[in-house]
Amino acid sequence: MITEIKEDLLKESIKNSEKPILIDFYATWCGPCKVSALLVKEISEKYSDSVEFYKVNVDENQELINEYQIRNIPTFILIENGEIKNKIVGRVDREKLENLISEYTN
Q: Residue 66 is part of a domain; what is its CATH number?
């Protein structure tokens, strides 16, 4: 399951999470974001027990964009124990995204 989240709730979720978190930074007008969203949805169903999945709309969350230095979308950030562990910029394929997640779920 993927949760659409805003700044205040994201910070609270990161602070309280016992699982790794994958954040998908996107925009509704972004073609590659739409393609990636389908993939993230499928992967979230597979890894929902071990990873929390969040989506952040860049047009509605400018402070988060600045904080996480999002310059291009889609951007995927993996956070564990409150720290950014990895960042992928641009459209991603299933293998690359699953490899990223599996590094932090074993």
A: 3.40.30.10
Distance CA 43, CA 50 (A): 11
**14 is written with which tokens?**
């990161």
Q: Can you give the C-alpha Rg of the chain in angstroms? A: 12
Mean pLDDT for 1-6 is: 79
pLDDT digits (tens, 9 = 90+) for 16-71: 888 999 999 999 999 999 999 999 999 999 998 999 999 999 999 999 899 999 99
Q: Are strands 2-4 and 83-89 parallel, antiparallel or unpaired?
A: unpaired
Catalytic amino acids? 30, 33
Q: Which domain holds residue 24?
A: 2-102
* C-alpha to C-alpha distance for 106 and 89, rounded to whole angstroms: 24
59-63 long-range contacts, Cβ below 8 Å, gap at least 24? 59/27, 59/28, 60/6, 61/6, 61/7, 63/7
The number of domains in the chain is: 1
d(CA 99, CA 82): 20
